[in-house]
């Protein structure tokens, strides 16, 4: 087991070096073309399938199913599945690499996350309905949302939810369509994912969303966590629905802090939110560790030793 850990982190360090060289090589070219860095929360991930008008079409849910083998469905945003899921923009989501840590003779993994989506828009655009239609008894659904759940309710990209975990709602008139839409709390949407999953006799697993490359102060080495907001509401929603919960945000943040700031920079590409290949692999490995620590979760039996 110790040999595996050493080889894994040795491979990570090699990827770090390659990533640095690639970023350094691309920087002059970008400057010559007059490109600027992505700025502003609303612009993050526009090259990652976040633009609703340019969203890549994924495979039909349930495509990997074989008799007697549960399917692990993964839903979320571009930190889970980035763009066409091929690394063409040097950004990757952790869902792409999750199958590397699972025994695919026991389960199959399908990554149906989509960039730019919030818990609200993933349901509102019918994406969840398509996934849910393929969920069967014995399957698992991993869900990670939060990066896109704040902001305007009815203007611009209009993907925000109400804060909290309660049952309150509000009705707004959508700027794009002129039609009314009822908006619920973040916890309400997360609970609906869980309820729908359990109704199919499948197992829901909620995850707090991955941390950004941001620190409590400019000179601090402490990574900002989401345990007072979205992460807290995810945990509360999981408790209410008796769903499994993995505090992915805190687990990854703790690893980042042990790495140091220089190494943390190599976990991201293009902005402070989207991960590089090395970062996505680290996150997928952390998800697997989280699954292993879930008491009573059958999916832990499908993890590679």
How many distinct domains? 1
Structural class computed from helices and strand pairing: alpha/beta
- How many distinct helices? 8
The Cα radius of gyration reads 19 Å
Silhouette: globular
Assigned CATH class: Alpha Beta
Q: Classify the oligomer.
A: single chain
Q: CATH superfamily membership, which one?
A: SGNH hydrolase
Question: Could you state the order of secondary-structure elements as H and E?
Answer: HEEHHEEEHEHEHHH
Low-confidence stretches: 1-10, 13-46
Return the CATH topology: Rossmann fold
**Largest beta-sheet details:** 5 strands, parallel
CATH architecture: 3-Layer(aba) Sandwich
Beta strands, count? 7
Mean pLDDT: 87
Strand order of the largest sheet: 2-1-3-6-7
The termini sit apart by: 8 Å
